[in-house]
Structures are given as C-alpha cells and as structure tokens.
Specification:
11 strands; D-Maltodextrin-Binding Protein, domain 2; five-stranded mixed β-sheet; six-stranded mixed β-sheet; 10 helices; alpha/beta
C-alpha cells in the first residue's frame, strides 16, 4: 500500500476539490492519500524544501521548484475579472512607501503587487490575520485572498484590484493564474500519472456533486463560510475550469512567467507545458 502526502490550503476551494478523495468517493487501488491543510505561505515554503509528495502551490512559486516538482493539470484556481484585493481603511491616503501585509513571499499576488508598488514596505503574515492587521493599524494596507475577498469590514475599501494590475501587464482576456498543484519528480512516472488522474477525477466528481459536497463540508465544519457564500466562492475558484488546465490557462501561466522574468523575479523564462507529466508515456509504455 502506497502512502502519498497531499498538502493543500484550508480555504474552501482547496477543501472542496480534495474531499472527494477524503470522503471515499474517488479511490486509487493500493494507495492511501494522507492530507494536511496549511496556509499558502507555509505550503510554498514546504514545497521549496520538498516536504510533501503532492502540494498546492502558488503559480508564482513554481519556477523556483521546477527541478523537483512537476506541475499538475488539475485543482487550479484562476481569477477572471476578480482576484485578491489590496484594501485599506476608508479615506486613508497611502504614501509610496506604505506598509502592507501580504499572504506570502512567493504568491502570485505578491509578485504582481511588487511590480505595481516597488517602494512599499512588505510584511508577511497568515492570510487570516491580514484584515485585522489593517483595521488595527499594524499595517497601512493588506492584500486579501481566499474567502476574505467576499466579506470584509465596512471600515475598509479597495485601493487596487490585483486583477487590474494583471490586466495592465498581461492585457485583456487573459485569466489570472493564482493557485495550482505540483507533484514530486522522484515519484515513478507511471505512479505520478495515476495520482494526477485520480486528482482530476476527484475535482470533476466534486464539481458534479457540488450541492452534496457543499452540504457535507458545512455539516462537518470544514469551511469557514455559510452555504450561499460558499457557492459564490466556488463559482469563482473551484468551477468547471478547475478540473483540467485549458490552453488559455496555460497561456496565462506562461505569460505570468514571462512577465516575472522581464521584471527580474525569475532567472529564466519557462514554459509550463515543458514541466508537466507526459501523459502520453502511459499509453506508449503499454503499447510496447
């Protein structure tokens, strides 16, 4: 029996996309998937250390782990007209060197924020603490992610949508790459392909059984929002487009890496397709 560790964030879209496996709706023979939920900064840092077999990551991190992890095609989250929000107290004027809270050094939103606000003084904290830090004046502003973008204090206002920064850099009609998953390259290729196929199936099953999955997650207190808010959030970040990467999504990821290279954040340009599991290997192997 193989034991495979899967790390994901505790936010609603990751929980939703993984729990078809946890509930036993999707299985892989002779394989046990052990999951752990961690905030996105911790996930990215652990991926840099190669801690987990499969891990949710920020797309912005991937060029730094490409030699140790392959990029998976499933459980992806993109913004399309929406995304993380830079918020501040209402009527507060931000200086060029304002102090800001971000959810992690390697997140996509951090990359885009740094491009737009090169003089800001950045502090990193758990995404659950950012709103309070802004309200308490610990920081001048903060970038809200996950469910926080839907419900935040009436004392706050949006200074800038990260989506707008993305459009300014990438142009219209390109979705914003936020989060995906990666798998350790040391796993035998045929096994890795089986694991990816299982995860694709899990995301598809969750999407097709959205009402039941949502009900079970809420009954078990596995998500932090009510039913209606959960549906709104899932429509944004765990939808049909999350099941398997499309050509447009791949174009968006590659554009992110091109922009990151041009702005000096990556040492070279990578093409996502070159770092994914070669699914054709399975059929070629058995044909021979």
């Amino acid at each position: 029996m193989s034991q495979i560790s899967i790390a994901h964030s505790p936010d609603a879209d990751d929980i939703f996309m993984y729990y078809a496996i946890k509930f036993g709706w999707v299985e892989l023979k002779n394989t046990t998937f052990d999951n752990i939920a961690l905030d996105i900064e911790t996930l990215n840092q652990e991926a840099l250390k190669g801690t987990y077999d499969i891990s949710a990551i920020s797309f912005g991190l991937y060029p730094f782990i490409k030699d140790d992890y392959a990029l998976l095609r499933t459980a992806v989250s993109f913004g399309n007209g929406y995304g993380p929000k830079l918020v501040k107290l209402k009527d507060k004027k931000l200086k060029p060197n304002f102090k800001v809270a971000l959810s992690g050094h390697y997140t996509t939103n951090a990359l885009l924020f740094k491009i737009a606000y090169p003089n800001a003084k950045i502090t990193y904290m758990n995404f659950l603490d950012i709103e309070k830090a802004v309200l308490d004046g610990v920081v001048d502003a903060g970038v809200l992610i996950h469910e926080s973008i839907l419900e935040y204090s009436h004392l706050l206002e949006v200074e800038k949508e990260i989506w707008d920064i993305w459009v300014e850099l990438a142009g219209e009609g390109i979705p914003l790459p936020l989060g995906g998953m990666a798998i350790r390259r040391s796993i035998p290729l045929l096994k890795a392909i089986e694991y990816e196929d299982t995860l694709i199936k899990a995301v598809k099953v969750a999407h097709n059984q959205k009402h039941l999955m949502s009900k079970m997650l809420l009954e078990r207190d596995l998500v932090r929002v009510d039913y209606d808010t959960l549906q709104t959030y899932l429509n944004l970040y765990a939808n049909e487009e999350s099941i398997e990467l499309s050509e447009l999504q791949l174009k968006a990821i590659n554009l992110l890496y091109k922009i990151g290279f041009e702005k000096g954040f990556y040492k070279d340009i990578i093409v996502a397709q070159d770092y994914m599991l070669p699914k054709e290997y399975k059929s070629l192997r058995y044909d021979n």
